Amino acid sequence: MPKSDPPTDRRREPAPEALAVLDRYLEHIEHVRRRSEHTVRNYRADIEAFLAFLGAVDTSFDEAGRRLGRAHLGELRAAGVADSSIKRRATTIAAFYRWLDREGVPLNPAPGDSMLRLRFPKATRRLPHFLSTEEAADLVDAPEADTPSGLRDRAILELLYGAGLRVSEVAALNQRDVDLTNRQLHVTGKGDRSRIALFGAPAAEALRAYLDRARPELATGAEDAVFLNRSGGRLTARSIQRLARRSGMQAGIAQPVHPHLLRHSFATHMLEGEADLRVVQHLLGHSSADTTQIYTAVAHRRREALITSALDRARRTEDGEE
């Protein structure tokens, strides 16, 4: 049977020697590149799926080339996998093979068929959703203001929106990272990159109320985390995701609210207010301005909608409809 024709009666299982090499690569990713457990899990899933595909077409990992890489990605597209996910998998697989090459692992693809050249057409970037300023205000006011957990939740929502933080960055905050006087935070983001995040007066007020009135009631030991659960331990990212969704429902917001939605809203509202793109890039902790650039399209779309709405109202007024 030709190697390009996958058998239909055999389970796709990666070869043991391929999995052994993958384990070495993932150790490098975790301990040298210092990627998160979540990222390592995604890398494993993506590469194991490709190695299983190679097993189904009777091809060892060291003989695979770009032709089979694209066949695997095409199979994913046919199965309905989103273009953004396929692009990520292409990047992950190519990175794995670049590491193999650097490590001196012999690779023997067909001439001109190197996996190092694996690419996939750019996915169409979907513009991120965001909250209106009114919805954001309703959201941060949703938690109760007279309970320790309510004050904590208000402070968290204010930082997610008012500083554009990632949920993992909020969960990882320690007390020494907070400078209320200068309204800034020392944040460790993706890839262990540190930055100074700034926040405004509303977030400072909410954070001060939590630290002064609520955190002492939640603290039961020497935990240094800023945000504590009811047992006095560090509040997890998962818990923050739940409180964001719950607060969105309490505020009557139609779309599901999650922490990254508040980060999107922060960036969009900053650019709507004519903030410099480079400043927003720094505040978000993006390594490249290209990542931040998408929010300019969102802000532009928002301004167009506001202008269109204003003109429509003006026309209706002239026509005596209002």
Name some characteristics of this structure.
mainly alpha; 322 residues; DNA polymerase, domain 1; 2 domains; elongated; 3-stranded antiparallel beta sheet
Describe the model.
The chain folds into two domains: 16-117, DNA polymerase, domain 1 (Orthogonal Bundle); 133-311, hpI Integrase, Chain A, CATH 1.10.443. It has a three-stranded antiparallel β-sheet. The N and C termini lie far apart (74 Å). Residues 1-11 and 303-311 have low confidence and may be disordered. The chain contains twelve helices and three strands; from the N terminus they run αααααααβββααααα. Helix content is 57%, strand content 4%. With 322 residues, it is mainly alpha-helical. Strand 1 and strand 2 (184-188) form a beta hairpin.
Helix and strand layout, with pairings?
Layout: H1 16-31, H2 37-56, H3 66-78, H4 83-102, H5 133-141, H6 148-162, H7 167-172, E1 178-179, E2 184-188, E3 194-198, H8 201-218, H9 237-250, H10 259-272, H11 277-284, H12 289-318
Antiparallel strand pairs: 1-2, 2-3
Helix pairs in contact: 1-2, 2-4, 3-4, 5-6, 6-8, 6-10, 10-12, 11-12
Overall form: elongated
β-strand percent reads under 5%
Approximately how much helix is present in the residues?
55-70%
The neighbouring-strand order within the major sheet is 1-2-3
| Count of helix runs | 12
Query: What would CATH call the architecture of the largest domain?
Result: Orthogonal Bundle
Q: Biggest sheet, in brief?
A: 3 strands, antiparallel
What's the N-to-C terminus distance?
74 Å
Structural class: mainly alpha
Number of strands: 3
What's the number of domains? 2
Low-confidence segments: 1-11, 303-311
Highest CATH level, the class of the largest domain: Mainly Alpha
Could you report the average pLDDT, rounded to the nearest whole number?
Answer: 80
Radius of gyration based on Cα positions: 25 Å
Please identify which CATH superfamily of the largest domain we are dealing with: Intergrase catalytic core
Elements, N to C (H/E): HHHHHHHEEEHHHHH
CATH topology of the largest domain: hpI Integrase, Chain A
